[in-house]
Amino acid sequence: MKGTEWYQADDIAEAYDDKRFSEGGQFIDRREKTAVLNALGPVEDKRLLEVACGTGRFSVMLAQEGADIIGLDISEAMLSQGREKAQATGVADTLEFMVGDAARLPFPDDHFDAVFAMRFFHLADRPVTFLRELKRVSKGQVFFDTFNLESTRLIYNWLLPMGSRLYSRRDVESLLADAGLELVDEQHDFVLPYGFYRELPKNVAEPFRKLDRALGETDVGDAVASVSYWNTTAADGDND
Q: How many angstroms separate the CA atoms of 79 and 117, rounded?
């Protein structure tokens, strides 16, 4: 895993949300949460697993929607932030945070109704191994996102402290085939990369986001989008 020391530092965890999801970053937060909710559908009483849950943005949201959820991450500092959020929002009873390795998930086969991982595969040095583990513990659905090779992210990718693995569509198709997953649905967004929005005040970022959404509704926008959301399920017969 790239940059694990940076990711697990206490000061990084404490500032993580404010740095990425305040001001213009609010548009990123809103879009990502919408993508997760749209993919997972009604989650009340569902048993869910979020791998690489970080500070619990998605886990807390889904617990508030009625899910019984576990958030797993390699960083205890990140999980501490998540536990504080769970306590503050009153969902600690239905949300558990635990330290764990995505390559060896501590759960039996078919344990969860759905499993998802956001902002994880750009850091994964063994993506097929991780994807197989997500599939193993899910009854069917696996949802994840990727940062894309044919996108504006190439412009600044090398500057990022943790690095970033970028995927072509062919890469994703190969991953799914090797993991025994079938694509159910896909969405593509953010012609302008995440880093652009995070650097802008919200009122300045808003017109750029409107333009970005308009471009994203075209074939060209999909082709050069910097982020893709992949909703998948076990291939026929794989989880029988």
A: 15
Q: What is the DSSP letter of 235?
A: P
Domain coordinates of the chain in residue numbers?
A: 4-232
> What CA dihedral angle connects 119, 134, 5 and 21, to 10 degrees?
20
Instruction: Using alpha carbons, list the distances in angstroms from residue 132 to 106, 121, 139, 221.
Output: 14, 13, 13, 30
Task: Return the number of other C-beta atoms located less than 10 Å from residue 64's C-beta.
Answer: 15
**Which CATH number does the domain 4-232 belong to among 3.30.1330.30, 3.40.50.920, 3.40.50.150, 3.30.460.80?**
3.40.50.150
> Contact 12/164 with Cβ under 8 angstroms?
no
Q: Give dist(CA 52, CA 40) in Å, integer.
A: 17
Contact 48, 70 (CB under 8 A): yes
Residues in the chain: 240
User: Tens-of-pLDDT digits for all 240 residues of the chain?
Assistant: 444 544 454 555 556 677 787 889 999 999 999 999 999 999 999 999 999 999 999 999 999 999 999 999 999 999 999 999 999 999 999 999 999 999 999 999 999 999 999 999 988 889 999 999 999 999 999 999 999 988 877 666 655 555 678 999 999 999 999 999 999 999 999 999 888 898 899 999 999 999 999 998 898 899 999 999 999 999 875 755
Task: Please check whether residue 36 is in contact with residue 106, taking contact to mean a CB–CB distance below 8 angstroms.
Answer: no
